[in-house]
């Protein structure tokens, strides 16, 4: 039941610097922990995140085992034109989630 | 004879002192009560305040999905009986734990959800502290966000509140501590690097950064009991529900923050 929370301003003036906030539901198991019987808990993390603005990649991040559960990623961009932001998270065990948000630029 | 009478008198006084003192312990005056929120740093506060940064909201979202999902052999969802949670569940978490007539004892929100599953959905109970029960509880409790805690006033609950208070006031465990020794007497101090706080349960289920997940009030209580090196109780144990009941009575009038973020 993965879910993402996205915060993109609905409207912006052309040339405005806007903040984009994303929160993705994920356990981010490091792969370094052991069970009580000594077995390693296998790594299960998100390994990469990318954001595209009208098809063009504007932000990308690689994630590593030290990242906390439910990674919160926030970044800034310049509002250039109305359109769509596409977000993509990829991780271990075939984890792949997408989300989208639209913006009106005046 | 005179000596014996003095000893009896002295022991009576000691007994009176021993039983009276815990009951008149320095409970926090109403005006000085503070939510755990006020003890947090600006970053953690900002995390709780922004619904798109608060990871507890992920649980609330999942809870909303579960609310609408059919379960059990009755083939009903929560929404089939309760309809829109925004209306029907408003204020519910502010009142819990509440008295259950059939059981003749208080039940907390998690137990109420599982009773509903058993009685009306003919479904298996959701296991304590697993994501589904936490998510559903968080979704229900979030409907009371901002509302003042208003404990159930059923007269039958009084003895249970008293038992919870007793638990809170009495020393126990290898460290010989009672909850009151920290949360009433030393809430303005620190334990290691962390603020002690006042044990005001106004944001449960909380997203605790230390846990990296949502967790219930009982999980928090069990943490504290382990910390006192005392005999612990299972999730859902009557002792823990009674303690919850007393803590909510203690927090009467304070606003619900669910899903709160705590360090």
Q: What do these coordinates show?
A:
The complex is a heterodimer of chains A (106) and B (263). Chain A has 106 residues and is mostly beta strands. Chain A has one domain (4-105): Immunoglobulin-like. Chain A has strands spanning 4-7, 11-12, 17-24, 46-53, 56-62, 72-78, 83-91, 96-105. A five-stranded mixed β-sheet of chain A has the order 2-8-7-4-5, with no helix packed on it. Chain A is elongated, with a radius of gyration of 16 Å. Chain B is mostly helical and 263 residues long. In chain B, 46% of the residues lie in helices and 7% in strands. In chain B, the strands form three sheets. Chain B has a three-stranded mixed β-sheet. In chain B, strands 1-2 form a two-stranded antiparallel sheet. Chain B has a two-stranded antiparallel sheet with strand order 3-4. In chain B, β3 and β4 (194-195) form a beta hairpin. In chain B, α3 crosses α8 and α9 (158-169) crosses α12 (238-250).
């Amino acid at each position: 039941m993965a879910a993402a929370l996205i915060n993109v301003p609905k409207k912006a003036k052309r040339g405005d610097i806007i903040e984009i906030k994303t929160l993705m539901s994920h356990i981010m198991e490091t792969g370094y922990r052991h069970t009580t019987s000594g077995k390693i808990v296998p790594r299960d993390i998100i390994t990469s995140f990318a954001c595209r603005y009208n098809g063009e990649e504007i932000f990308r991040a690689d994630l590593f085992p030290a990242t906390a559960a439910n990674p919160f990623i926030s970044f800034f961009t310049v509002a250039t034109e109305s359109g769509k932001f596409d977000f993509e998270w990829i991780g271990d065990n075939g984890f792949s989630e997408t989300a989208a948000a639209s913006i009106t630029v005046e | 004879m005179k000596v014996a009478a003095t000893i009896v008198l002295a022991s009576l006084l000691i007994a009176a002192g021993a039983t009276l003192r815990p009951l008149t312990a320095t409970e926090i005056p109403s005006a000085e009560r503070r939510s755990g929120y006020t003890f947090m740093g600006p970053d953690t506060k900002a995390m709780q305040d922004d619904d798109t940064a608060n990871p507890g909201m992920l649980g609330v979202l999942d809870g909303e999905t579960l609310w609408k999902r059919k379960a059990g052999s009755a083939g009903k969802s929560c929404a089939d009986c309760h309809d829109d949670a925004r209306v029907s569940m408003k204020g519910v978490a502010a009142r819990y734990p509440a008295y259950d007539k059939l059981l003749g004892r208080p039940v907390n929100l998690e137990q109420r959800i599982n009773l509903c599953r058993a009685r009306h959905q003919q479904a298996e109970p959701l296991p304590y502290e697993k994501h589904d029960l936490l998510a559903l509880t968080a979704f229900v409790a979030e409907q009371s966000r901002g509302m003042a805690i208003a404990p159930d006033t059923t007269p039958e609950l009084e003895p249970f509140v008293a038992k919870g208070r007793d638990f809170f006031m009495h020393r126990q465990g290898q460290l010989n501590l009672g909850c009151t020794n920290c949360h009433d007497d030393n809430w303005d101090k620190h334990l290691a690097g962390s603020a002690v706080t006042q044990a005001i349960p106004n944001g449960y289920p909380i997203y605790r950064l230390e846990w990296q997940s949502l967790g219930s009030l009982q999980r928090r209580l069990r943490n504290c009991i382990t910390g006192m090196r005392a005999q612990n109780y299972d999730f859902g144990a009557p002792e823990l529900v009674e303690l919850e009941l007393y803590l909510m009575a203690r927090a009467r009038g304070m606003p619900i923050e669910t899903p709160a973020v705590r360090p």
